[in-house]
Amino acid sequence: MRIVFTEELSIGEAEGDENYMFGNSIAFNTDDEGNFYVADFDSNRILKYDPEGKHLHTIGREGQGPGEFRTLSVPRFDKDNNLYITDSMNQRVSFFDQDGKYIAHFKTLVPLFFSKNGKAYDVADEDGCKFVKRCSFEIQE
């Protein structure tokens, strides 16, 4: 048995529009609607593309303010399909809506993982023992 891949879409250019040019280190994820979110670790920004590869908008930039990043994580989504990014250098997790609008952030010393089931998972160290913890969460204004 073998797997045969047939390219259906390619996003990226060696030269040209900066919205299609990526640095050396990238990661991506897709939301429930098939949009692509590319984390460009070199420029500390997230680029959102529709399912056909059209650039929709750029989220974030280098910095320490709200909606800015110093070190990006892989783009992930919570149960409401909000984008969240863990930024270890700024010691926080930032949330954005589907239009890329900054919603909120909270401080954290360790990376967290939010799953589609509405739970947050964390690694904790208590008295020298490691634990994986699951918590419920909600974003409140």
What does this structure look like?
There is one protein chain. With 141 residues, this protein is mainly beta. The protein has a domain at 18-109: Thrombin, subunit H, CATH 2.40.10.500. The protein has no helices and eleven strands. The radius of gyration is 17 Å and the shape is globular. The model has no long low-confidence stretch (mean pLDDT 85).
The share of residues in helices is: under 10%
**How many whole angstroms does the radius of gyration measure?**
17 Å
Main β-sheet, spatial strand arrangement: 1-2-3-4
Q: How many strands appear in the DSSP assignment?
A: 11
End-to-end gap: 52 Å
Shape: globular
Q: Which stretches of 5+ consecutive residues score pLDDT under 50?
A: none
Strand content: 35-45%
Identify the CATH architecture of one domain: Beta Barrel
Number of helices: 0
Largest sheet: 4 strands, antiparallel
SSE order: EEEEEEEEEEE
Average pLDDT value? 85
Topology:
Blueprint: E1 26-30, E2 36-40, E3 45-49, E4 55-59, E5 76-77, E6 83-87, E7 92-96, E8 102-107, E9 113-114, E10 119-126, E11 129-136
Outline:
The protein is mainly beta. The chain has strands at 26-30, 36-40, 45-49, 55-59, 76-77, 83-87, 92-96, 102-107, 113-114, 119-126, 129-136.
Properties at a glance:
141 residues, mainly beta, Thrombin, subunit H, 4-stranded antiparallel β-sheet, 11 strands, 40% strand
